[in-house]
Specification:
CATH topology: Rossmann fold
CATH class: Alpha Beta
GO biological process, one term: methylation
GO molecular function: methyltransferase activity
Domain Methyltransferase small: 42-187
Structural class: alpha/beta
Number of strands: 11
Largest sheet: 9 strands, mixed
Helix content: 25-40%
Distance between the termini: 36 Å
CATH superfamily: Vaccinia Virus protein VP39
Pfam family, one: MTS
Order of helices and strands: EEHEHEHHEHEHHEHEEEEH
Number of helices: 9
Radius of gyration: 18 Å
Protein name: tRNA1(Val) A37 N6-methylase TrmN6
Length: 268
C-alpha cells in the first residue's frame, strides 16, 4: 500500500507510506534511496515476546519499522527509536504523526543519538544506564569489500565499521536492566564478532539461522541473549522464510512477518 496522505505535497514524491502487519501500522520510507524496511525488521520485532509493561530500545532504528512492529503487537510496550541520521529520524517522526499510527504513537519516542557513544557523551545524548528491558538492533551489514551502493544514505545505513558489534553491544549492555534481553538480526558471517562482543555481557545466546527457501544457505541469523546470564549457547532449528515453489511465505514466517505471533526463546 502506498499513499501520499499525511505528507506535505512538496515532499510526497520522496516518500512512500507502506503498510505492515497487514495494514495495522504504516511507515514513512524513502522512495528512491536510503534504507527501506521489510522482512528483516519484522523478524527482529518478533524476538520481543513480553506481555509485561516493558521499555524497548531500537538501536539504529531508521524509520522505525522494528520498533513500531513491537508496539503494534505488544500493547504494554514503550519504544525508544534511536537513530543518528537526522533524515532517517525525521522519517520516524513523520511516521508517528500519521493518523493510521495514532493508536501507538503515544508509546513511541524518537531519540537522535549515535549508539557508539561512550560514557558521559552517551548519557548526555539520552542513552541512560539500566533503563530498558529489551534492546533490539539491525546493525549495518555490508563489509568493506562488498560492492558499495551509489546511494549515500543507503551506504551509510548499510556500511559496517570496524568494531561495530563491540560498540553497539557495549551500549546495549549499558542501557539495559540486569536480566534484560538483547535481540538482533545479522548476516551469518558476523557470528564470530557477535559472540565475541557478547562476551561476559550477554549469555544464554540462542541463534537461529534464517534460510530464504528449503535447500538454500542461510542469509540471516536471529540472535537473542540475556544480560548477565551464564547459560550456554544454543543453535536452534532453522527458520525457512519462503516455500520451495517461489516467494510465498511459510506459515511460521508469515505469522512472524505479520505480527500474529512472537518468536519465543526456548529458555524464557
Amino acid at each position: 500500500m502506498t499513499t501520499s496522505a499525511g505528507i506535505p505535497q512538496d515532499l510526497s514524491s520522496d516518500f512512500t507510506i507502506d503498510a505492515f502487519h497487514r495494514g495495522r501500522f504504516h511507515l514513512v520510507q524513502p522512495k528512491g534511496g536510503g534504507h527501506r524496511s521489510g522482512v528483516d525488521a519484522m523478524l527482529l520485532a518478533s524476538l520481543v515476546a513480553d506481555e509485561r509493561s516493558v521499555s524497548v530500545a531500537d538501536l539504529g532504528s531508521g524509520a522505525g519499522a522494528a520498533g513500531l512492529a513491537v508496539a503494534s503487537r505488544l500493547e504494554n510496550a514503550r519504544i525508544v527509536l534511536v537513530e543518528k541520521l537526522p533524515l532517517m529520524a525525521e522519517y520516524a517522526r513523520r511516521t508517528l504523526a500519521l493518523p493510521e499510527n495514532a493508536f501507538l504513537s503515544d508509546r513511541i519516542t524518537v531519540l537522535g543519538a549515535d549508539v557508539t557513544l561512550t560514557g558521559k557523551a552517551r548519557v548526555d545524548a539520552g542513552l541512560h544506564d539500566g533503563v530498558h528491558d529489551h534492546v533490539i538492533m539491525n546493525p549495518p551489514f555490508n563489509h568493506a569489500d562488498d560492492r558499495i551502493t551509489p546511494d549515500a544514505l543507503k551506504a551509510e545505513a548499510h556500511a559496517m565499521t570496524a568494531g561495530l558489534f563491540e560498540n553497539w553491544l557495549r551500549t546495549a549492555a549499558a542501557i539495559m536492566k540486569p536480566g534484560g534481553q538483547l535481540s538482533l538480526i545479522a548476516r551469518p558471517d558476523s557470528i564470530v564478532d557477535i559472540i565475541e562482543a557478547c562476551g561476559k555481557r550477554f549469555g544464554g545466546l540462542e541463534i537461529t539461522p534464517v534460510h530464504p527457501r528449503p535447500g538454500e544457505d542461510a542469509t540471516r541469523i536471529l540472535v537473542t541473549g540475556v544480560k548477565g546470564s551464564r547459560a550456554r549457547l544454543v543453535f536452534r532449528a532453522p527458520l525457512i522464510v519462503h516455500g520451495a515453489d517461489g516467494n510465498s511465505f511459510m506459515s511460521q514466517a508469515d505469522d512472524l512477518n505479520n505480527g500474529r505471533t512472537a518468536y519465543h526463546r526456548r529458555r524464557r
